[in-house]
Amino acid sequence: MSWFLRFFAAILALFIFRPSDAAVASFAPSGEGLRFRFAVISDAHLEGNNGDKHDWMGEAFRDLSAASDSAYDALVMLGDNTMNGQLFEQGMLYGLMRKYCTVDTVLMAAGNHDICGSDYNLANYDRLKKRFIRYNNAFTDHEIDELYHYAVVDGCYFIVLGSDRDAGVAQYLSDAQFAWLEGVLKEAAAGGNPVFLFSHWPLNDVFPDVWAEGHVGEQSEQLKAALEACGSRIFFFSGHLHMGLYGDERDYKTEGQITYINVPSFGSENTNGGVLQDTGLGYSVEVYGEEVVVRVRDLVGHAFTEYTYRFAY
């Protein structure tokens, strides 16, 4: 079955995207002593009938593959990777990824558009979840059996959370996912390294003025308590809000050992907050010995913006 999915995706990639004539110059990290580097994209909303989004995604994968000196060690796609979770949309996404992206470790998070039923995908949560996992395992080396999973990069845990049922625009974490998370956080704490946590949904009280319903939901306090109890330095990346960027501390919030970082929508208009509302934005994250540097990059225009955030750990 995997060979058929790969063949199907390759055919789609061949016809939906032609690379631009724009040169994609290689680029080095911003400082000395880099441990590793990874990229984060959220809310690509790849859609069957939207050619612009096909082009943006293809250019982004070209951009991610142009880094020099220290190539990206990982790419995290933070959910709502597709608009409707359709077979066609999954095929386009992974076809473009397979053809143009050379990042070895790719971690896929699921958002509500990927796994929640709608009039446009003719499927329910269970079917969409199986589809998400099937495509992930056919096209990435990071095989999963649940929507929550983790990988270890240079000793640092990359933890991806999911939703265990269709909760609309909110998230639902089962008892099994909470138990799994607490176990993984305990393992991560033993290593003494920062932890990178990825979830499509932010906690309720982090960016509350943007979109009141666009958060974890009823389990937000329980999730926050689990994260605070582990004692690790955590960087929590979330999307979903389409709030764009302000270019300052409104894009993130640090409470104790946890820094919450908003990721703008890559593929749909950012209308819910910030002054920088362009599509095509993603993060290039550099991890040094005592600092995490988050650089905002225009992945479609192949250039860094003026915005950079620095966090000690």
UniProtKB/TrEMBL annotation:
Segment forming the signal sequence: 1-22
Record keywords, A-Z: Signal
Keyword Lipid metabolism: no
Domain Calcineurin-like phosphoesterase: 36-242
Keyword Methyltransferase: no
Protein name: Metallophosphoesterase
Pfam families cross-referenced by the UniProt entry: Metallophos (PF00149)
Native species: Candidatus Fimenecus excrementigallinarum
Molecular function terms, GO-annotated: hydrolase activity
